Amino acid sequence: MAFKPANHIQDLQYFGEFGGVNPSISDSSTYTFLSAKTMFDTFEGNADGCYLYSRHSSPSNLYLGEALAAMEGTETATVTASGMGAITPVILQLCGAGDHVVSSRTIYGGTYAFLKNFTPRLGIETTFIDITKLDIVEAAITPNTKVLYCESVSNPLLEVADIKGLSNLAKKYNLKLVVDNTFSPLSISPITLGADIVVHSLTKFINGSSDTVGGVVCGTQELIDNLRNVNSGAAMLLGATMDSLRSASVLKNLRTLHIRMMQHSQNASYLAEKFENDGLKTVYPGLASHPSHGLFKSMMNDKYGFGGMMTIDVGTIDNANALMEMMQEHNLGYLAVSLGFYKTLFSAPGSSTSSEIPEDEQKEMGLSDGLIRFSIGLDADIERTYKMMKDCMVQLGIL
Ligand SMILES: *Cc1c(COP(=O)(O)O)cnc(C)c1O
């Protein structure tokens, strides 16, 4: 049966303390107990429904976590203060000194930097590979490998991971397949394809209003319990806790995610087709020319399309910078990193979000200087946007 993530979110029902249509926000860092015994049991994690301290859990964080677990089809989830605050504890929970990670080489710059520069200090080594080649992935697995890490749609090159194929490898070698699904919420449901753990930066499409950072880990009850363990849990002890006021606001934004994703996808798809027809080197998973178009199609849920992210290559960094500045002047979007906003956002990843990746490695993975990454907005009149963007390109001699 088809997986319907938006239904799963909508089927949850929470009321506020006084019958409010939104759940009440518990605006407290600490909680009182009538009996000292219950306080002890709660600390040990043995008193369901009781709260002790808001780094451990809070009603608002549990509501948001439950909604995101429903969206991804996992037993449960834990929300965190940022996407990196979700990714780093997962790696550290699953790996210790001597362990090994096999990771896609085209991942978010912060994740890349963490695996490349930080975890080796703790004795965790990572091999970065081309995730689209399963034979190369398999060849990189060693007896010490614990984690297979990828993004369902990669940042910034929009490579698509074959999650079923990777999951088969993970099962064969007893690894955990961790998928960052930030670029494709609702469109792709990695758990249904065999992933073990899904992480998101809530900062992007899921929250969608560019007013906060946030993250989530969706997984089994056992994993989330381990992450939250007061004695040994990486999420608990590293302390990247989301604030209750913020999780309540992210939950309200999550209510409209399905509508926003449809509009982001529709607009991006329109622009990608037009730009490609104009002769620009355009990368969008919805284009038949995308090497993984068929794969994305085979993995996607109905309705939500191929997402809001696309790239064009305008040849040189000077062209890219001039075009981005001109588009911003014409109010077609903002020269800004991040994604999932109502407004189109654009940046040149080589010199910004992927600048952690050394230049020669950027070249090797096809990340060229003239690449512009777009997070296409919710424009009500995308034909007008297209015409105005094209005008900018003509004025600059790019088209
Ligand atoms: C932004 C991003 C992250 C990091 O999330 P933060 O909320 O900035 O910590 C991780 N993965 C992907 C794919 C991202 O786009």
Molecular structure report:
This is Aminotransferase class I/II-fold pyridoxal phosphate-dependent enzyme. Belongs to the trans-sulfuration enzymes family. By secondary structure, this protein is α/β, with parallel strands linked by helices. The protein folds into two domains: 5-254, Type I PLP-dependent aspartate aminotransferase-like (Major domain) (Aspartate Aminotransferase, domain 2, 3-Layer(aba) Sandwich), CATH 3.40.640.10; 257-395, Aspartate Aminotransferase, domain 1 (Alpha-Beta Complex), CATH 3.90.1150.10. Helix content is 38%, strand content 14%. The protein is built from 15 helices and twelve strands. The protein has helices spanning 5-10, 36-43, 59-72, 84-94, 109-118, 134-140, 163-172, 221-228, 234-238, 244-254, 257-277, 293-299, 317-329, 359-364, 382-395, and strands at 76-80, 100-104, 125-129, 145-151, 176-180, 197-201, 215-219, 281-283, 309-313, 334-335, 345-347, 371-375. The protein has a seven-stranded mixed beta sheet with strand order 1-7-6-5-4-2-3, sandwiched between helices. Helix 3 packs parallel to helix 10. The longest helix is centred in the C-terminal third of the chain and has 21 residues, at 257-277. The radius of gyration is 21 Å and the shape is globular. The model has no long low-confidence stretch (mean pLDDT 95). The structure holds pyridoxal-5'-phosphate.
